[in-house]
Amino acid sequence: MTTMTIKEKRTETASHILEVAKDVFAEQGFAGARVDEIARRAGVNKATLYYQIGDKKALYAEVIHNVLSNAAELGARAIEKAQTPEEKLRCYVRSIARTVDENPQMPPLMMREVASGGKNFPAEAARDLVQIVGILTNVLKEGHEKGVFIETTPFLIHMMVMGVIVLYKLSVPIRTNQPAFPEAIKKLDKNVSGAIAEEIEKLILRAVLKEVPRE
Amino acid sequence: MTTMTIKEKRTETASHILEVAKDVFAEQGFAGARVDEIARRAGVNKATLYYQIGDKKALYAEVIHNVLSNAAELGARAIEKAQTPEEKLRCYVRSIARTVDENPQMPPLMMREVASGGKNFPAEAARDLVQIVGILTNVLKEGHEKGVFIETTPFLIHMMVMGVIVLYKLSVPIRTNQPAFPEAIKKLDKNVSGAIAEEIEKLILRAVLKEVPRE
Amino acid sequence: MTTMTIKEKRTETASHILEVAKDVFAEQGFAGARVDEIARRAGVNKATLYYQIGDKKALYAEVIHNVLSNAAELGARAIEKAQTPEEKLRCYVRSIARTVDENPQMPPLMMREVASGGKNFPAEAARDLVQIVGILTNVLKEGHEKGVFIETTPFLIHMMVMGVIVLYKLSVPIRTNQPAFPEAIKKLDKNVSGAIAEEIEKLILRAVLKEVPRE
Amino acid sequence: MTTMTIKEKRTETASHILEVAKDVFAEQGFAGARVDEIARRAGVNKATLYYQIGDKKALYAEVIHNVLSNAAELGARAIEKAQTPEEKLRCYVRSIARTVDENPQMPPLMMREVASGGKNFPAEAARDLVQIVGILTNVLKEGHEKGVFIETTPFLIHMMVMGVIVLYKLSVPIRTNQPAFPEAIKKLDKNVSGAIAEEIEKLILRAVLKEVPRE
DNA sequence: GATGAATGAGCGTTCATTCAT
DNA sequence: TATGAATGAACGCTCATTCAT
To answer: What is the reported pTM?
Structure first.
């Protein structure tokens, strides 16, 4: 299943431009991205880009919003079928891991955005983010109320989950290309959604479960 | 008291320029930083900057290397006095939290760098990074050998620790400025090295300890 | 009631576009005018504008010609009923003053055009201009032949009449908006066709009449 | 005596750029002028232009101010030696005519500026303008108080004097190049400061003098 | 007759970098 | 060692114009 993040309201041209812009902003960041390059890679004239979407900031805002609202939607849907808080937490972690693998532009976009202090962060996207955090918060609260999770700062757990997944994913190029890294690290999985996600699930659960199943 | 990261071999002018450059690169990223601004904020002529250090890339490389080698050194020193693996892990987390609070430029610099896939990552800095990862790897191995830690993928734990701390720290401006965030999140501590670091220690230990101390 | 300067041969759409174009060219000049703005203010698509009239230069040429031929016609008609040269001169001045008040786009269009050295001046419009100058020339010649006017350079008198009227009218925004101007000037009439035109008549007549009526 | 309008405070490069800018703005107007062309004709890089002076607006403002303050100074100096109001008025007209002939950029600059309603008119320049108007106002007042001039609206006389001179000068290219104009007009003097200025002097004086010397 | 979409060329501006002093 | 001045190359954006429908 390919990710379809671009709104259907947009014309085909606009959707295509936004898809390319997502790539370029992910690769180069806002300041590093070149409107020329986005237009060229989208196969359209620069003026068309302005006609269809607007200036660089508008382009960026729309990309960020698309990515985050998509993530929020997937996160919410992921825990729908799960019953217990424990199961919900597992599903949530797996969902984020899968989202990251399927939308490889998300980690760099997110990281650059937070690194910049949200300088270009559109208010719309902030709401998406709050929604994502909210999902996990509810799961953790429910687990604590039911006596299976210890008391935690949900936002911190969220940073932990997001942090590992995103950072692990982002580390791929550096640990692969830099000769200084040892073989053991170099040959770690390039995807997060498989065995790595399972280990993360286990670690997070061990961290928050009152009774940890000893192995 | 701020940490002194700039090498003493450099002239005073050069050190000062590098200190300013660290701020500017942290605030704006490599592409967003302006050589003009660095020179202006350093109170020197642009030509002086080129004479003393070199071009923008050289400036950036030196900043990154200074920051990372400093972090590596602090990380290594942190666990020196600790005896048990558990204690070492605690010290390590606390050390990173403190480093982050005292060097607020580190998180944005690191995150942008990994987000870019290490495009401008100097080989020197990669060695610093490997060293930092190595510290934690050894602690985790020792703990596992001594039977107190479960078996883990040390690199993943490293991503976890770094991920939480750095992401938590970086989230401050966004969660503070964006009205969409709930009060509960807005009023969380702006520093990591206090209560937050303690909770992180606890969570990480619960995740890796074979026998978790029940509360 | 505004003067209807646009030819009837044109479709209603074209006439409307030309009317709007007259405004925009008057406000912004040829180089400053935007085809987009003309189309928008006319409520038509840009392509329609090109279909109906042609490119920017064609649009401009037609506007200039309309304005000048209108002025020429009004000038000629103004002196029709007058008998003596003196009366004709009075009527002529009054006619130009009225034309200027009723067609506020004329002064800026004319002035920018002469300021540019007639770079975009269509030959048609030049003929209109010659006709306007011709009217006054005849009056002055007649007056001189009849012994009531001194000998003059008619073209210079024409520049004088046009100069005062047009410059006076054009000075309104500057002398009104710029705080540096004294109150006495600020509160001068914004129209030329009333008391101001009368004073101009008087001054011009005093300048060219052999026998000036002492007051 | 060549006109030295550019301030001595400026570097030679800046003065040269401003001199060229004066030409280009006079030829093309603000909107029509191209920064590229100014730089090219000045023989400097575009970036130098921004380094030395600033953006297009700043460039324009400085040009306008230079031209007007120069005119104001010359106007004031012109009537210094004259004794009677009549003589002062003559000198004033002659001074403006000479200024216009020696600074051929002034008429187009002025006319375009008033035609635009002073859209880009710098406040500094407005003060220069008020000063110029003030000179003539004083002469006319003095003449009226001494009983030699009739009562007039000084600002209107100013528009008249400026109007003829500037319009006459500006009409040169059109009346020369457009075939529609009759020979009599084509062969009129291209300068204002000779016989034309004398005729203007005569006309203006006849207009305002109580007792006109009959010829 | 009218329009949404597209475009090449160019615009004003800024960038990192160099050079003469 | 330090700087004011200069620059080529780009950058984000807008322009007048065209074309398929």
So the answer is: 0.89
